[in-house]
Amino acid sequence: MYVIVVGAGKVGYYLAKELVDQGHEVLVIEKDAAKAERIAEELGDISLMGDGCEASIMEMAGFGRADMVISVTGDDEDNLVVCQMAKVKFNVPRSMARINNPKNEEIFRKLGIDSTVSATTAILAQIEQELPTHPLIKLLRLKGGGLEIVEVKVPEDSAVVGRRVGDIVLPPQSLIALVIDENGEPRVPGGDTVVQAGDEVVAVTRTENEDALRGALTAPTAYGPYGPIDAQKR
Amino acid sequence: MDFSTNQIKQILVPVDGSQASLDALALACLLARQNKGKVYAVYVIEVARTLPLDAELNPETAKGEEILARAEQVADSLEFEITTEILKARDAGPAVVDDAIEHVVGGILVGVEYKRPLGEFQLGRTSQYILRNAPCQVMICRSAAGSAGE
Amino acid sequence: MKIVIMGCGRVGAELASMLDQEGHDVTILDVNPGAFRRLPPVYGGKREVGNGIDQDVLARIGVEKADAFVAVTQGDNRNVMAAQMAKHIFGVLRVVCRIYDPIREEIYHMLGLETISPTKVGARLLKEALEREPATPPKAGE
């Protein structure tokens, strides 16, 4: 695959390095002479000094035969223009942009940039996964089969507080494996085990049913297998 | 006395068809003959990035072969046998330096024309790259002022 | 008409004061508050400090209620991005964008932006001036 990377900052440098290691043909375009030279020195003759938004440079770089263009400069506007030009003028099959301001994802999507990567968004997602206050934590994703093991903290106002495990309606292919009480005492539940507020429930579920499981264990209204019972006309 | 030039056995000469590059080749042959060494004459086809590196470039290859044939004639006239090579690369500079490293040559001998395109003498991009980056000894053989390219 | 101008350079300031004089509701936006010194003292429109390619800034200055948006910063790409945001996110009907680079200008024109390339226009005007009949030189002694 011929991959053109625009921008030789840290992201561009390591990206190019990995892509070369994977055996792709790579070209890095960089405005700054010193940065362009550093790529050439360390990764070989795969850098071109110039403005990656300039049509003449794009032409010279062979955008016309690129399989993919990835724009990773520190300026969202430059990344946008590179990707748009790649698509419109050079018919590059895939374009990818780094986004610095996560709010810009919307405009990039609307303008048809195939995919965007935002470090800010990625970190926010990571925080969500790691924060202990979050009601559902992924403990383990099992290889193959789409199953995962998750931990859900049962809030005080949950509809399952005071109910027997056997009576809780779970989404398909979900199973409560362990109930850990507030003192940290784990129990392997039987059908008669009663769930208390503050319990941590370890369950096996399918990835796509994760939200439904979270709802079943945390929502104040009773849940059926496909969402809140109130919402289901039975 | 010990001169590094006396020790050089393997010499690489980039040839582009210019008189200066053929003069440099002749000099390399004399030097290598005296040192009982070897000379590589290298022609680099610079492939534009609009094309893949392994693209078929028949006219360019034919031109390279023709220039290397002339290089061989130069060597023949000095009764010396050389090895010729055609390389394909994006830029001649790095290609020559990489090739020099691969053959573990003791020196690169570059012929440069005396050209004053903007009113003053300028060393070309490839010679500059070789001077800056080659790990081995680099010798520049500049043609006499007013000889060619002026 | 409510008009938002992004970039208070020479052109932005001139345009803002012209439209203001004609009685339009003008807002001029620039990242650098020092840029507003280019506005004449009589300018009665709004001055806003902020980055025009930040959606939050555009929302804050009320771009969605604007009838027209003009992008005239020094950066072609910034103009292109802000103009497309005004058009596609805030639904502004009239969006005009300055792009120095004639090739980029052509492409974004193709993509439906109203674009002006001062490079192209300027070169054409200069050429036309050169091709006109020369004015008669003043007679010696006059």
Describe this structure as you would to a colleague:
The complex is a heterotrimer of chains A (234), B (150) and C (142). By secondary structure, chain A is of the alpha/beta class. Chain A folds into two domains: 2-124, Rossmann fold (3-Layer(aba) Sandwich), CATH 3.40.50; 132-231, Alpha-Beta Plaits (2-Layer Sandwich). Chain A has seven helices and 13 strands. In chain A, α1 (10-21) links the parallel β1 (2-6) and β2. Chain A is elongated. Chain B has one domain: HUPs (Rossmann fold). Chain B has five helices and five strands, in the order αβαβαβαβαβ. Chain B has a five-stranded parallel beta sheet with strand order 3-2-1-4-5, with helices on both faces. Chain C is α/β, with parallel strands linked by helices and 142 residues long. Chain C has a six-stranded parallel beta sheet with strand order 3-2-1-4-5-6, with helices on both faces. The chains are: A alpha/beta (234), B alpha/beta (150), C alpha/beta (142). The A-C interface holds A 53-56, 75-78, 80-81, 84-85, 88-89, 101, 103-104, 106-107, 110-111 and C 53-56, 75-78, 80-82, 84-85, 88-89, 101, 103-104, 107, 110-111.
Q: Report the sheet with the most strands of chain B, covering strand number, pairing sense and barrel closure.
A: 5 strands, parallel
CATH class of the largest domain in chain A: Alpha Beta
Overall mean pLDDT of chain A stands at 86
What letter string, H or E per element, gives the SSE order of chain B? Answer: HEHEHEHEHE
Q: What proportion strand of chain A?
A: 25-35%
Query: What Rg of chain B, in angstroms, do the CA atoms define?
Result: 15 Å
The number of strands of chain A is 13
